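Hi U.,

Before I forget, here's the chain from the pilot set. I'm dumping it here mostly so it's searchable later in email.
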Amino acid sequence: MDTYLETERLALRRFTADDADLLIELDSDPAVMRYLSGGEPTAPEVIRERHLPRILDGYEKWGGDLGLFAAHEKEDGTFTGWFILRPKQEGPPDEVELGYRLRQAAWGKGYATEGSRALLRKAFTELGVRMVWAETMSVNQGSRNVMEKLEMTLAGTIPMPADMELIEGAERGGVRYEITREQWKQP
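Structure:
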């Protein structure tokens, strides 16, 4: 495995063209997709024809340093989900989004915090990132808890995109958290 980053329990690697089935399985779980599509799975052809090619193109665009990374348990190689560390398509490269999508079997084990903490460290110490941001629905308390454990600051509320308006809790909008390199360095 071409490891991008390791934590105590996880190994993160770049996705390959052979990984469509991992993404299809992850996005077919209604609980995983609850705050993304209201529980509707992503169609396999969308993953194969749009999402995976876009992920692979991102590595080229950002020199392999930023993008979407497959996460596996180091102990037995089990796919746990993915983490994201990348700028917006046309955004400045020193302002990156942090996020994750984990299989239900990986929930409640601290993997989201562990992987995200390691990505923050890499972003601020190796990749020249100035600011990291993350967004979620206001009602997604699990993700908000992770952002707060990472000492990210609630920067404000955000409107929900039109395609998410029918999702349970969408009427409460979303939230954006941020942390700068200077804030991260503080003891």
